[in-house]
């Protein structure tokens, strides 16, 4: 079983990045695709959104320093086909500490190599902090594909240009020549406003082959689910949020051939 690594990144907070990481991972697991969610955000929102308690020493902090292994941090979740590498507050220190190491942009790629080699997961999804700091840059260096969660508002379009430039710099510097923008997920779509539709149309015009057909609606249920330690499929299985993430998962499976292990 070959492993495909996705990173979900955006330098802006509050765009539905962690919501997308958690619910896309859960939706793939629903389709019986072995998936590993890596919580790389020191706030550990993806960890708590799956109902997993934060524990000291249960994150990639040690493995990124060469202490212990990423596989040793893998934690089961309520989903049979979904595992998690949790986060904890210690990861915040990595932003400073990694910069003092050799090959500091490649530390995460090296740390996750045993996960790839184990052939235990078809998809690895990395949830990044809401900033293009050391952890996010490491995740871009470790990934095969970048998935961009983009809120349906005009300011988001500026951020899109910035992150595309970062990808091009990493490729031209030889850090990760194979990295591509795997897709753009439009989030927080408000059916009541023209603005949401205009932003989607604008992205379609400039990056028609990158944008996913599925748009994620702005719903109260999607906002509430993490506070109950549940994915949208546990919290509101028949609602519009769950339906949207199931459709997105089907697009991801088809676009990246995840069924063809």
Any overview of this molecule?
With 261 residues, the protein is an alpha/beta fold. It has one domain: P-loop containing nucleotide triphosphate hydrolases (Rossmann fold). Helices cover 41% and strands 18% of the residues. The protein is built from eleven helices and eight strands. An eight-stranded mixed sheet has the order 3-4-2-5-1-6-7-8, with helices on both faces. Helix 8 links the parallel strand 7 and strand 8. The longest helix is centred in the middle third of the chain and has 19 residues. The mean pLDDT is 91.
Measure the end-to-end span: 5 Å
Provide mean pLDDT, rounded.
91
Structural class: alpha/beta
Helix content: 40-55%
The shape is globular
Number of domains: 1
User: In percent terms, what proportion of residues is strand?
Assistant: 15-25%
Give start-end ranges of low-pLDDT stretches.
Answer: none
Question: How do the strands line up in the largest sheet?
Answer: 3-4-2-5-1-6-7-8
């Amino acid at each position: 079983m070959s492993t495909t690594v996705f990173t979900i990144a955006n330098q802006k907070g509050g765009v539905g990045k962690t919501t997308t990481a958690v619910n896309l991972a859960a939706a793939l697991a629903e389709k019986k695709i072995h998936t590993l969610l890596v919580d790389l955000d020191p706030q550990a929102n993806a960890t708590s959104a799956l109902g997993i308690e934060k524990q000291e020493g249960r994150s990639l902090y040690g493995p990124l320093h060469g202490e212990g292994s990423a596989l040793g941090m893998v934690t089961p979740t309520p989903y049979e086909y979904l595992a998690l590498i949790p986060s904890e507050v210690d990861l915040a220190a990595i932003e400073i500490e990694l910069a003092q190491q050799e090959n500091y942009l490649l530390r995460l790629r090296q740390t996750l190599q045993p996960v790839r080699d184990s052939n235990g997961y078809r998809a690895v999804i990395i949830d990044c902090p809401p900033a293009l700091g050391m952890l996010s840059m490491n995740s871009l260096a470790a990934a095969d594909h970048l998935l961009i969660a983009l809120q349906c508002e005009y300011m988001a379009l500026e951020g899109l240009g910035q992150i595309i430039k970062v990808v091009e710099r990493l490729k031209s510097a030889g850090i990760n020549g194979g990295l591509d923008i795997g897709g753009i997920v439009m989030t927080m779509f408000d059916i009541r406003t023209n603005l949401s539709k205009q932003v989607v149309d604008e992205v379609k015009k400039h990056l028609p082959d990158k944008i996913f057909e599925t748009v994620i609606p702005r719903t109260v249920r999607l906002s509430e689910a993490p506070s109950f330690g549940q994915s949208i499929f546990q919290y509101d299985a028949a609602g519009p949020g769950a339906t949207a993430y199931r459709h997105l998962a089907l697009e991801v499976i088809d676009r990246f051939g995840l069924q063809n292990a």
